[in-house]
Write a structure and sequence with these properties.
single chain; alpha/beta; Rossmann fold; 5-stranded parallel sheet; 9 helices; about 60% helix; about 15% strand; globular; binds adenosine-5'-diphosphate
Length: about 190
Amino acid sequence: MINLILFGKPGAGKGTQAEFLKSKYQLFHISTGDLFRHHISNKTELGILAKSYLEEGDLVPDQVTIDMLKDAVENNTEAKGFIFDGFPRTTKQAEVLDAFLIEKSMQITATLALEADDDILVERLINRGITSERKDDQDEEKIRNRFEEYNNKTAPLRSFYDAQGKFYSVDGIGSIDGITQRLTALIDGLL
Ligand code: ADP
């Protein structure tokens, strides 16, 4: 089984690369951002709870996110492996994920971090905001808030996975194809 975490700041290209990786390695892709947006557009109880957090660019509380993630894994137990995209985003989430995977006799294979400078990321997000309906991409203040959330709460996960020997940095600048090639070369080297 291959279980990958795609790691990186907002706009780093996690969702784009996940699309390629999931078909190449036949993995089930779980994007917590996409799941939240799905709940919000369907006006579920979870969506109503998560809406204001997403719109402000704040992280949704851990327990809510963790429960949603566990459900997504448990509903897809026949998968050959998973791509976790946008999860974990806090140390608590990472600890719970490790414990949960152990229970299922699974483990993280690698955490792949897509690296890009903030200026490039902000530009990508603002461009995405023009064509998408994502309110969190349409306001620079909210974009900055997401970076702040990342720096405060998510960045510490680098050392969390590095301590396990599972953290890999990948240059996230360049053509989409080129970045996919870097990722697949790295993953193939781990198999
Ligand atoms: P991006 O990486 O481009 O900021 P995502 O689509 O991954 O966007 O996530 C959008 C929003 O969903 C986040 O700003 C946050 O509000 C919420 N979210 C997604 N994943 C998590 C998580 N693991 N923990 C808490 N909140 C999350």
